[in-house]
Amino acid sequence: MNDSGSSIFNVEKSLDNKRWSFAQADENEIVNLSQNHGLPEFVARMLVQRGIKSDDVDEYLNPTLREHFPDPFSFKGMKKFSDDCADCIINKTPIGIFADFDVDGATSAAILTRFLRHFDVIPPVYIPDRLTEGYGPSAEAMQSLKDQGAEFIIMADCGTTAFEPLQAAHDMGLRVAVFDHHEAEDELPTAAHIINPKRQDDKSGLDMLAACGVSFMACVAVNNSLRTKNYFEKTGKSEAPLKSWMDLVGLGTVCDMVPLKGINRLFVKVGFEQMAAHNNKGIEALCQVGKIEIAPTPKDAGWSIGPRINAGSRVHRSDLGAKLLSTDDPDEALSIAYALEECNQERKKIQANMMQVALNKVEFLKGNNENFILVDDESFHSGLSGLVAGRLKEKYDKPAIVVTYVENQDGVIEGRGSGRSVKGVHMADIFIAARNEDVLVKGGGHAMAGGFTIMPDRLDDFKKFIAEYISTHKNTIEESPSIDVDGIATVCGARPEFVKLLNYNVGPFGMGNPEPIFALSDTKVFQVDILKEKHIRLMLSDADGGGRMKAMFFSGVDTDLGKMLLNNSRNTNFHLLGQFQINNWQGRESVEFHIIDGVDSFSQRVPVKQAV
């Protein structure tokens, strides 16, 4: 690891128009961590760069459920809920489940279903149709659960801002418990229980949790209440096997892109260790369909498992994910997994067409110089607005919003949109503020992502509202977007042992703990070709010809860097940014470099102290 990276490269504008910002770290603290905890220097450096103090290293590296699991009763209202739910189980009160259609909702529904099923409670489960019902509960959904016999409803991954539907549920005589993690307002809707670490009166400090984490903590609390009420002693029933469902918690946490810090880091570490055993038949089936032949990783969850679970909701089959993760029948699991694979292939085709239309619209409006992107079209698929918004955000480094149009249950055409944001712009705050000003019908979410409903005739008002809001409230939208670089490496030094040590000690990686980005300095490209008409495959070596390493530049063919790699690599060396991956092929391990940015090295021929 080079200790003066910023003075070596000083890249102000890469071929992708990015500035490279090299991480700085206290050298004395690096030595302290390395010596006191027996860590390789490059691992200690990564920990220091991530703000891990010496006293916290052991917990960071080796969190355990026994020592680091938080008190579930630290949530506001958890004790009251757990006693109430325990009484429902004891008195055999019919319980229903309502959950969102994404992976967080599906894993939450599966955790709650398995928990209740252990106590011989078979809950009806309602997952709203993403395309016709949209996000969150409705009075019709509450009535449906009541018609199926439910008297007590547990709502997961939504509900914190669902004022009218929850009032309707209350008026029907239903008691509702909300498990959520979305932004909360000063006032909360009418419900028997609202467990949300983002409640303004919640002091748990667990606001990093996804809904699946909140749901799991609630199950732990109910199990405790049942024990206190002597339920297990009186009935001879065993306690719920809570630890066996940690794989679901880990999966939902990774896929919902919540910060991998604190308890989330523990959930993901333990969850993916458990996932390797393939105890959950649904996850095992998804691995089989996705051709994941070794223990799944968080990256597999984000790129393969999660998208397949989500795919059902994008083509009118929102309930498939929750069903898949709740079943113990391997044949049923495989059947659902293949159905989701078909949904996923259909989703890819629709998304590609939608993305092209969106790009054309953005390019047409490029001269407007807005501080955000908003595109809408009657042809847009309402199940894919978030994915396309995310791609637009990544391409243009601006908050991006995609609006689709659907006919609601009353036969009225309404706009449904999703937004993805950048650092310094809080997406949920924008949507909540617009809703409070009656510009939107519904709106909410997280800092980096959110959703809303709008009447078509208010779209121009919404655009003006967003522009003014961002201008007034923005914190740190960078005019020249930067990439944080963790260190400098060499082709020769990047061995599988290095990558494994990094992944084991600094991972799992995700939101809040990003996968390290390394610079390869003055690198030679001695073989390059195109895969599937859009990806670039390369073989790299150090400037002196030492070492050989495969590299991939996904979707790089039409980029400026891709064109230079394909056309000028024989005459040009490059500084490349990317991430190291372990490639397993026929039992052999090798290191692969996944390129994310680059610049030619003609003007930056400064000697580099090698890292690894």
Quick overview:
Strand 7 (373-376), helix 18 and strand 8 (400-407) form a beta-alpha-beta unit.
List the helices and strands and how they pair.
Elements: H1 5-8, E1 19-22, H2 27-37, H3 41-49, H4 57-61, H5 65-68, H6 78-90, E2 95-99, H7 103-118, E3 125-126, H8 139-147, E4 152-156, H9 163-171, E5 175-179, E6 193-195, H10 211-228, H11 231-235, H12 246-255, H13 263-275, H14 281-289, H15 298-311, H16 320-326, H17 330-364, E7 373-376, H18 385-396, E8 400-407, E9 413-420, H19 427-436, E10 442-445, E11 449-454, H20 459-473, E12 482-485, E13 487-489, H21 496-506, E14 518-531, E15 535-541, E16 549-553, H22 560-568, E17 574-585, E18 588-600
Parallel strand pairs: 1-12, 2-3, 2-4, 4-5, 5-6, 7-8, 13-14, 16-18
Antiparallel strand pairs: 8-9, 9-11, 10-11, 14-15, 14-17, 15-16, 17-18
Across the major sheet, the strand order is 3-2-4-5-6
The helix fraction, in percent, is 40-55%
- The end-to-end span amounts to 7 Å
Say how many strands there are: 18
